[in-house]
Specification:
Blueprint lengths: L1 H29 L16 H20 L29 H19 L4 H34 L9 H5 L14 E4 L2 E5 L14 E5 L2 E4 L5 H9 L11 H9 L24 H10 L7 H7 L38 E7 L24 E4 L16 E3 L8 E2 L3 E2 L1
Parallel strand pairs: 5-8
Antiparallel strand pairs: 1-4, 2-3, 4-9, 5-6, 6-7
Helix pairs in contact: 1-4, 2-3, 2-4, 7-8
Amino acid sequence: MKSALIQSRRQSIAVALAQTRQLSLDLFTQIDQSLFFKQAHPEFSPIGWHFGHIAFTEAYWILESLAGLPPSFCEYQGLFAADGLPKHERQNLPSPATIKDYLHTVRAKTLDYLATAPIGQEERLWQWLVQHESQHAETISFIWQLHQQRKYNLSSIDFGQAKSQVGCDLLKPSANDYAEMVIVEAGEVIMGSNAIAALDNERPAHKLHLDTYWIDRYPVTCSQYSQFMTAGGYQKRQYWSKSGWQWLQQNPVDQPLYWSNSSDWLDHPVYGVSYYEAEAYANFARKRLPTEAEWSKAAFGSSDNCNHSRLIGHTTPVNTYPNLSKYGCQDMLGNVWEWTASWFAGYPGFAHYPYQGYSEVYFDQQHRVLKGGSWATSSAALRTSFRNWYHPEVRQIFAGFRCAKD
């Protein structure tokens, strides 16, 4: 009985590895190889580096740390390590074919070891590895979008094909159609998770008490956000925090990074906005951004029937999937990440895993928590307890938001 259970868990990991790798390889084949070596933005490594880093990380943690094999591909030790070269020096890469072979070679050895690995002792690291690859695949997705946007001088989406791919025939909404809020009564919320797949920053699960609050039923839509833009939101100091206004003066923008004036996108969530832009809109709407705990409580009961894993290739209208949470919120998982008002920090009792730099180095009061996942997030990282984190000025990620109020 015990051996059958171990074999079942081993098979489950093999399936997760295969599914995640297939998403990565699908990206590999779709991306123009001329973009493989180029930085799309100074803060992000080239696409090719991320593929090499996926293989390097798998070799280090599985083949060397668990299987005890000697290091292979020693020439990649400095190139593909996360703490190796600065990002701007990561453009001198092996050919795409060489990196693809690196991925295949490492994976073949990984699967050989998995066949006899003591999963009962090692499962947490295997689960971490699957999620590591899925996170880098999503990073590759938005770097590719940035390249496409620059190449064609367009927003990141093929706007002309959106409706036919989504398969919806919705009436054009007004800006108020998605303005409804739901009430979340005072009480406890369970934060985090103790599940085997939970990352170190999700642990340990613990309870918090929250007072009653209101939260948007849907993420803020392009229709709603256009009101902020039309009202001069990017020009009026009154809507911006001190740090937000300073950022805006240094980065004079007047619309989200991923924006279209097409009416076909009015009922899609706005995305490609920084935390500062989300915060300014919330002030304009006489609301605020929810805390991580408020978002988490409102999301309780949300299902993974949503827009994720690049199944569609862009956002969908916020009411496409009938996946209501317990409190009546919709679109809490998938579609777009959502900024929260909380700084990324360790939960009480936090213990780093598998190394200190994975999460703990970012507990610096410089990174805001994002929740929920996006249309490019794989199922391995799609859960309400999952925590993403970025500097508040970042707008290249697939991030939107919803608002709350007391």
